[in-house]
Design goal:
- By secondary structure, the chain is mainly α.
- The chain folds into 4 domains: about 5-65, no CATH class; about 95-220, no CATH class; about 230-280, no CATH class; about 330-420, Cytochrome c-like domain (Cytochrome Bc1 Complex, Chain D, domain 2, Orthogonal Bundle).
- It contains 16 helices and 8 strands.
- It has helices at about 5-10, 15-20, 25-30, 35-40, 55-65, 95-125, 130-135, 140-155, 180-215, 225-235, 265-285, 290-315, 330-340, 345, 370-380, 395-405, and strands at about 75-80, 85, 165, 180, 245-250, 255, 365, 420.
- The protein has a two-stranded antiparallel sheet with strand order 1-2. Strands 3-4 form a two-stranded antiparallel ribbon.
- A hairpin with a 2-residue loop joins strand 1 and strand 2 (about 85).
- It is elongated and about 120 Å long.
Length: about 425
């Protein structure tokens, strides 16, 4: 902004157009004081622009007429003419989803605890020993049923209209796959508190039943830790008590025991069922997860971006020891454009040579290998060839050097000056 006024004040308003079209050519001509004054501002120069004079003037008209956008008016509302746009505040869905995961995990743990305690109480109530000790005393089943009905009512009466599932690729930028509103979190908090109350209630009930059936003044013989652990993991009956689980049929004097399945195996089996249900919903019904083909394609795209970034990074590390001859048409076009700006004055457009040597013949002064040409362009030489490391990037030097090595022999080129003959 204001650059046109500066050039016009210096009496070079027309030269500003030439500066935009080809800054290097204007600097080389030496006819612009402004161009010479700012040529050392940056080690690289602006690329030539393929714009017409009218288009360049239109750009400067836009720059001079630019004004900043108006500041917002009011707090929650923006005024646009006569319309008022209301700002809608949305919760932090990413944070809410994380809390939602914790609530779901806690809910599953509490439900598993309720199932275990309920199963233990049920087994205790059905046992013959309990019936002998307690008789027809109240078992608390009605209270338990009331609590479970309350939990079921809360689940059935909940209306989670705010939960929104976003399939892969459908979510807006920054949004997770599931949009959880604040009221949903309050609901799950209430559910978990109720379930926690149920767990404490069942635990209290179980402990009361155990006190009721415990024999008075009976000394409890403590088992070794390994025996207790084996009992928990296998649920096996002690040898002294095996007569209680003998089946009635026998064969050749052999009778079969009716042991329960090991608890670790049973819960492992239940876990596989839960996992299968979650898997089907996650990958096939809700579509919130990527199947193998989709995940592979996404990973390949991500890795391709890493490869491209790596290649760009390595391209900036090109030097006279690692330069390679480029054959791609786009690279050669870029090399030609750079040659036209930086080299034509000394070597002519076809490379036949003027002040500088002929670049199309078979005799070279400093060598014709791409690495040698790269070094000459980068560092210059003692006989007048200027360095270009301060003007061109490593990739640009490689493009120019590759373009030079693709010259065809000029019919009226400058006489050979070198001693190194290219086959």
């Amino acid at each position: 902004m204001g650059v046109r006024a500066k050039w016009e004040a210096a009496g070079e308003g027309d030269l500003l157009i030439e500066w935009v079209k080809n800054s290097n050519a204007l600097i080389t001509s030496g006819k612009s004081t402004m161009a010479n004054a700012i040529k050392g501002f940056s080690p690289t120069t602006m690329d030539p622009q393929s714009l017409s004079t009218e288009e360049i003037k239109a750009v400067f008209d836009y720059i001079d007429a630019w004004t900043p956008a108006p500041e917002p008016i009011g707090g929650d509302e923006l005024t646009t003419g006569e319309k008022k746009v209301e700002i809608k505040y949305v919760p932090n869905y990413q944070k809410n989803l994380t809390i939602f995961y914790w609530f779901i995990t806690l809910t599953i743990i509490l439900l598993l605890a309720i199932i275990v305690l309920s199963g233990s109480i049920s087994s205790l109530i059905k046992s013959d020993y309990f019936k002998e000790r307690i008789g027809k005393k109240k078992d608390g089943g009605s209270a338990l049923l009331s609590v479970l009905l309350l939990v079921g009512f809360l689940f059935a009466g909940n209306e989670l209209f705010a939960l929104t599932f976003n399939r892969p690729g459908m979510a807006e930028e920054g949004q997770p796959w599931l949009l959880v509103e604040n009221q949903d979190l309050y609901f799950f908090l209430a559910i978990d508190l109720v379930l926690l109350g149920v767990v404490f209630y069942l635990r209290s009930m179980f402990m009361n039943f155990m006190k009721m059936v415990r024999k008075p003044k009976e000394k409890v013989i403590k088992s070794p830790v390994s025996k207790k652990l084996n009992k928990v993991l296998t649920d096996a009956v002690d040898v002294e008590e095996e007569h209680t689980i003998l089946l009635h049929h026998e064969y050749d004097g052999i009778r079969e025991l009716d042991n329960n399945l090991p608890p670790w195996w049973v819960w492992g089996f239940y876990a596989t069922i839960v996992f299968a249900v979650v898997y089907v919903f996650h990958f096939h019904i809700l579509g919130t997860g990527d199947l193998q083909n989709t995940a592979y394609e996404k990973e390949m795209i991500a890795k391709q971006k890493e490869v491209e970034a790596y290649l760009v990074k390595m391209a900036m590390n090109v030097d006279e020891t690692s330069a390679e001859l480029m054959e791609d048409e786009n690279d050669l076009k870029q090399g030609k454009a750079l040659f036209d700006v930086n080299c034509v004055a000394c070597h002519l457009e076809d490379g036949s040579g003027k002040i500088g040597p002929n670049l199309t013949d078979n005799t070279w002064i400093y060598g014709y290998d791409i690495k040698e040409v790269f070094g000459v362009v980068k560092y210059g030489t003692s006989n007048g060839m200027p360095e270009h490391a301060s003007k061109l990037k490593p990739t640009q030097i490689q493009q120019v050097a590759s373009y030079i090595l693709h010259f065809k022999a000029a019919a009226n080129g400058k006489e050979p000056e070198g001693k190194i003959t290219r086959p």
